[in-house]
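Changelog note: in this version the structure field was regenerated for every chain. One regenerated record is shown below for reference.
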Amino acid sequence: MRQQLIALSKLSEVDNSARELDTELREIPLRIQQMQETVARLEALLDKEREKLKEAQNLKQQHQDEAQSAAEQLARSKAKMAKARNMKETDAVEREIENIRRTIREREQENDKLASAIAQVEASVMAHEAELEAVRVICREEEERGQKRIEELNIQREEVVAGRDQIAGQIDAALLRRYEQLRARLSGMGIAEVRHGICIACRMSLPSQQSIMLQRCETVEVCASCHRILLYKDALI
């Protein structure tokens, strides 16, 4: 059993080293994805802002067209005034002219407000476009760095796990299967080292009898708290 536990300890060391690399390999794509999602959100917000700007510009143009149409109508009404044949017709044309002038004033006032609002939105769009471009640059740089780092990590991982199969082949199939199941369930750590009678993984003290059994290396001992396989490495030397 001692040789089995020694091999299991070596396998755990390999897996722990690979686990750190695997963690970084998972984190890099997630970090890049988060940045890409940030870019997508900024693009969506900017699209909405551009749409509002377009709507305001269209409304301003509509008011300008209405004001132009009213001005043409005003000219026709003035011409009609010259042809009025009596006071009744004159009064009607004057009311018509006043209504047209009121419409023109209202459209001009509305356009002044729209022009101010449009200027603010245009400035905001320009600022957000610059912000978005800066984030895009950062995202592209992060993608390039991430891809390069992933390649480096994959090379390191291949070096770390080289010989793992040979070590695993020295372990009884049932014990190896148990270890792999624990590793899959417990954050990649199926083994817990014992120091001074304490399980390093969960910091729980072990019964004295179990500590004695660990030092003998005759049985497979499991932590009653975290359920990992326990190893007393000093006894394996």
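Spot check on this record: The mean pLDDT is 91. DSSP finds five helices and four strands in the chain.
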